[in-house]
Amino acid sequence: MLLFLGNMTKKKLHFNSRVIHGGQKIDKSFGAVMPPIYQTSTYAQSTPGGHKGYEYSRTHNPTRTALENSLASIEGGKYGLAFASGLAAMDTVFKLLKPGDEVIVTHDLYGGSYRLFTKIFQVFKLKFHFIDLQDIKEVKSKINNKTKLIWVETPTNPMMNVVDIDSISHIAKSNKLLLAVDNTFASPYLQNPLIFGADIVMHSATKYIAGHSDVILGALIVNSDDLHDRLSFIQNASGAVPGPMDCFLTLRGIKTLAVRMERHCFNGKKIAEFLSNSDSIEKVYWPGLKNHPNHKIAKKQMNDYGGMISFTPKGSNFKNAIKIIENLKIFTLAESLGGVESLAGHPASMTHASIPKKIREKSGVSDSLIRLSVGIEDYQDLIDDIIQAINS
Ligand code: P1T
Questions:
Q1: Nearest protein Cα to ligand 1, atom 16
Q2: pLDDT, tens digit, for every residue of 65-110?
Q3: Is domain 258-391 given the CATH code 3.40.50.300 in the classification?
Q4: Whose CA is nearest to atom 3 of ligand 1?
Q5: Distance from the CA of 112 to the center of ligand 1, in angstroms?
């Protein structure tokens, strides 16, 4: 099959097929099944402007194009844009705004996102309202004629709260606001925010999308021609693009996204249930649990519940929590998430250290909170590892 599957892929193929074929072409030169890594910064021109669609690799690169088409396909969007990191993708979104504009943001979010908003964009006079996006009244009360964007992260990092994208999208639409959703924790396998009315979907593709802890990459997916044009202008003008090798690695990761996610979800359920039934554990945060406060919303907008779990051990404090994650042998103590290997982290001192203690504790990021990124190992080995780490 030497055909470009393009739109047909997006509309007709199921997710399991789109991760393999979505937006992909067979290489014209030698029939390579995987897209070549076009490790070039520039392209020969017969006369100024006389090129074959590629001029300079900050603007476009064929390996990046293959990835961007794949990203669009797996999120069910029209356009994908790839960036040097998740934060670079976010940086691009906020450059759509101008000084004086206001943004409504979830108060429970990745520490690096909080740092980008407060330490970079606040300096350029964007105003951020960090609020609980589950409180619709509160969301409405923050909207005024300067409000331009609502930024949602769901499930949230690390508290695993689930925001109802559909409800927020109705508010955004009726007030002519852009709605952007950070879909990193869910991945396109679990949730497609464009279906619920989001204008922009953002991913740290570093995580589940690439899936092997070997690349840093970000993505934006949109349907609107106008938004795509504005974002790709900033992508080129600001220049935070990924190199062709990282695009290739991400494309390779995407091929197994569906099968990896299936196992992440299976293992996530096993471990969340084990933790919930353990006498040593105080609280478990995983949206698949029936007693999770947002379980119903999660059931409505997600296809399954993923492999991210946070928990607090009983009677724990900063020291105990650190001791437990240091004792783990199969889970690696590390930042990041979404790779095939299980990781454990201490949000208060690691991923969320840039959020002032008082603010992070308000959203539940206490000193005793532990975050797990459950990998695709055998779940029994992972459970045994948690038991020995708590007991030793
Ligand atoms: O690391 P980068 O690719 O730039 O992505 C930033 C980012 C954005 N959004 C969410 C929800 C994220 O979790 C992250 C990165 N998070 C981690 C590194 C972490 O360990 O939580």
A1: 336
A2: 999 999 999 999 999 999 999 999 999 999 999 999 999 999 999 9
A3: no
A4: 86
A5: 7
